[in-house]
Amino acid sequence: MSETPAIEISDLVVAFGPRRVIDGLDLEVARGEVMGIIGPSGSGKSVTLRALIGLLAHQSGTVKFNGRDVSSLSGQERLAQSRRWGVLFQQGALFSSLTVAENIEFPLREHLGISRKLRREIARIKIEQVGLPASAASLYPSELSGGMIKRAALARALALDPEILFLDEPTAGLDPIGAARFDQLVLNLKDSLGLTVYMVTHDLDSLTTVCTRIAALGGGRLLKAGTLREMLDADDPWLIDYFHGPRARHLKGSEHGV
Amino acid sequence: MTARSIGQEPQLVRAESDGAPAYKLSGAWTSAHARTLERAVDAARSSDRSPVSRIDMGDVLALDTIGAWLVLGLGGRDDQAARPELVNAEPRHLALIERIKSQPPAAVQPAPTHQAWFVRPFDTLGRLIVGAGEDIVRLMAVLGQILVSLVTAVLHRGPSRASSYVNQFDLIILRAVPIVVLIALVVGAIITQQSILQLRNFGVAIYVVDLGAILMLREVGLLLAAIMIAGRSGSAITAEIGSMRMREEIDALSVMGVDPYRALVLPRMVALVVGLPLLSFIAALAGLVGTAIVAQVYGDIPFDIFLERLQSTLNMRTLLVGLVKAPVMALIIGLVAINEGFKVQGSAESLGRHTTASVVRAIFLVIVADGLFAMFFAAIGF
């Protein structure tokens, strides 16, 4: 059972009118893997993510979660499936009229039917887990800083202990300490919950410390997928620029440690 | 690694161990079974409060945060002294429990104390009065800002933003013409029909022309146009400015040295003040058409007699009364809409609340102002 990949994308095509943004993408994410998705702007990273979680319809190709084709699921099954996902949107997408604690409690309240007390306690655990101060619980999203919004949104994405976590640029806008803590958190969660993570990121440190594999998209296709080592050895010009550019200096050193 | 399975019903079995309660857990202790688990744990804890000595987790197939928290709860998480022994647990389950134990959620903050029921109405009334006072001050401030930016826009040589003015005039006034015409036509017809019914009793059905004409030009045309614009454009202005505030677009304008009042507020305000008199005149004409149609069909007043009567009744003064009021109404609608827009805070809820407030207040103030005008014109015999 553990051989079936958590996410299996084959020959995915997403088009806006005549423009094919994703043009025959194949990608597999194994269970318990942290897959980092990189690619230049406009290469279809976000579109792929949105197509995976069902926000965008795809024209052809299949997306399978745990070996089951999403398009073959009934409405009920699809709902059950989406409960097993956690999604962290780029801008957080917190509900602006609810406090942080209420935001985190929201999926618990919708799906679990547990008591208010337990809901609150779980929300507090999540707040603690993502490193938010306890006082943030009663704040509204408009009163939070950018980094705090990210963390609160992560806490909400984690509320139901998802099997698959989709992260859209999770460390963008975080300070290095916060970003490092975030990476550590993802690793922790992966170990203790057996989480599969699909992470769109540009953070080279995240790629080195957290990601077990990296997939590079370009022009709506998969340029290359593999471990960091394999990516460093790739001969694609964009990948060379990416992994051997001025901001990737320190990768050389850490390469041996990975 | 075992996949987290959904099927296995979790179970909690009580067993004695050295006289103290012990539990054996099995199945999937995950959020999918959260409700069952919570009840089972609550029942176990309430039936026996003595410290738990041992929890056997040998048959636990899956564990997540909720499950781990409940396991901790079963062992008495508040009681530091009593730590039950967790046996046969999988290392990763144990790690999860340890991690949650090491980061205990902060104590629940006490909810803010509620006021006594007999204080609350007074509290609300007080807040309303203070809020109304603040609103008046703020409206004056908005008016002042608009006048200042008007003066600078006229005197100061800067970008003219002519396209912005034209665009706003099109959006706020021209596109409202069809609906205003339609409504005025229907209202004119209804008023005429009812008036004919009554006037016939006195044998003076012909006076419906005087009644309709004066009513349309002095009051109804303007009121209909103003209420329509308050609902249609007042809400739009509030929502536009409010969402621009939420997304810091207004701040972006300010730091670029562009006065948001000049760039955003003035084009809308000018469109309103210039356009509403026109729109209310159009509404009055449409109302008269409705009157004419019903007078012919329902009151047997031929069109040429209608026109003759209209000419002898109407004068410049009737027209002016309607037109003089229109810019004031436009000013009220604009000020309220812009003021509410700038009051929007970060949340979507706040945007909705202020948009509603904008429309309701604008319509209310327009009607009140119309009443005041009626008293004023009566007093000066105009």
Percent in helix of chain B: 55-70%
Spatial ordering of strands, largest sheet of chain A: 6-7-8-3-9-10
Give the tally of structural domains of chain B.
2
| Main pleated-sheet profile of chain B | 4 strands, mixed
Number of helices of chain A: 10
**Total strand count of chain A, please?**
10
The shape of chain B is elongated
Shape of chain A: globular
Secondary-structure class of chain B:
alpha/beta
Tell me what the CATH architecture of the largest domain in chain A is.
Answer: 3-Layer(aba) Sandwich
Task: Give me the CATH fold name of the largest domain in chain A.
Answer: Rossmann fold
Explained architecture:
The complex is a heterodimer of chains A (258) and B (382). Chain A has 258 residues and is α/β, with parallel strands linked by helices. Chain A has two domains: 1-84 and 163-258, P-loop containing nucleotide triphosphate hydrolases (Rossmann fold); 87-161, no CATH class. Chain A has ten helices and ten strands. A six-stranded mixed beta sheet of chain A has the order 6-7-8-3-9-10. Chain A has a four-stranded antiparallel beta sheet with strand order 2-1-4-5, covered by helices on one side. Chain B is elongated, with a radius of gyration of 35 Å. Chain B has two domains: 11-102, Transcription Regulator spoIIAA (2-Layer Sandwich), CATH 3.30.750; 142-379, no CATH class. Chain B is α/β, with parallel strands linked by helices and 382 residues long. In chain B, helix 1 packs parallel to helix 2 (65-74) and helix 7 packs parallel to helix 11. Chain A binds chain B through residues 1-2, 31-32, 95-97, 108, 111-115, 118, 120-122, 124-129, 134, 137-138, 140-143, 158, 160-161, 163, 188, 191-194, and chain B through 1, 3-4, 30-31, 34-35, 38, 64-66, 69-70, 92, 95-96, 99-100, 103-109, 246, 345-350.
